[in-house]
Amino acid sequence: MKPFPGPPAHWLYGHAHEFSQDGTDLDKTVVWSQKYPYGHQVWFGPFTAYLAVYHPDYAKALLASSEPKDDVAYRFMLPWIGDGLLINSGQKWYRHRRLLTPGFHYDILKSYVQEIAESTKIMLDKWELLSTKERSVELYHHISLMTLDSILKCAFSFHSNCQLESNNSYIQAVYELGFLASERFKTFQHHYDLIYYLTPNGIRFRRACNLAHEHTDKVIHQRKEALKNEKELERIKEKKHRDFLDILLCSRDENGIGLSDEDLRAEVDTFMFEGHDTTASGISWLLYCLAQHPEHQQKCREEIQELLGGQEKFEWEFLSNMPYTTMCLKESLRLYPPLPGVSRKLSKPLIFPDGKQVPAGCLVALSIYSLHRNPNFWDDPEKFNPLRFTPENSENKHHHSYLPFSVGPRNCIGQHFAMNEMKVAAALILNRFELEVDEVNLPIKTPQIVLRSKNGIHLKIKKLEK
User: Fold this and answer.
1) Any bridge partners for residue 405, and if so which?
2) What pLDDT is stored for residue 409 in this prediction?
3) Which of 265, 289, 359, 456 has the CA that lies 20 to 30 A from 8?
4) What is the CATH number of the domain that holds 27?
């Protein structure tokens, strides 16, 4: 790490004491990125170090390879999501990536739009009741349940009714697993399995994990039994809406071999984990940005109302006819990327464009949050300005200065699904409600597995007149 000097470190704690969980952690990385524009070493305790990088050229070098993702960042989720596409590497990753890619084809994503719209409308009906009673509403929880509802429909064709009856055991298990993994990351002594699984949270995590696996195994078993019937197999191949599980069960590699039961469960659980919390974060921060900037909110609303023409039915074709709303979404993803950082564990030495290098075995973490605020590539980077993403302005930016879904061979396979879901939700919300910031309850950013707010995202919502 000597070629990459960094902030002074305590002899025992390293830089751990710099991260206080008071909502300033990400702002601190921005300050560091301006002092050390390419990267610097970060120490957690005297034995664990990683290289933090911030520059687009360094990002390009790091993400061009198919190096495995950092097992430390995701290992707390490993008991639930297993060795799926998010975590696995090598030939297994290549094989799974090939088998899963058809699940995100244009024709498949097209069939999901109505499912997402249906889930969003359930949420909006709840908001109508709340808007008459509450001064402001904490939206993140509602949006997270909505995206979970959507992903259940798209992954399993499972209509859970979780937005109205969130006491369903599987819903509670999924919700709890994400929360407990985030909480575990904050407590260093809980990083050791032996200690963690003796704590109340560790016991809750194992119980929730077992419940989630039982549900996934049951659904997979029932669908596999159904597929033994040739007529049912033909019906699934021809039906209008093929869910994610259909795609996985019918996928075969060049040798005619499909995924094992263990791999099937890992991929479905990974899709559940990655597909609901990240989009919930993206939608919530977009609404917060639009509430802060009513002039942009109104431009989006006018664009959407012209598309919908006085109705609430959302069509697939609308997604490509929302240029201003899309620019606002891209700008909110710049300021508040759902995944504030990504990391890789090097299996071979990595040489950066300036000649500096790090050896195999090192951990390299790219701060997407700080990259998106680099003043050398973004004018007035803290300002919300959707016009950065007009076609002419987009042509002039560094290709690796904006990475909300990462890039390279290990980029987010579900990015088009996520963008579609965020657009559908934003359109239907703005068509029905006006949003205003609650100055008493401003969000406090916290980088957990995804970018959240410690106190939720509170907005005043007002139903629009017909």
Assistant:
1) none
2) 86
3) 359
4) 1.10.630.10
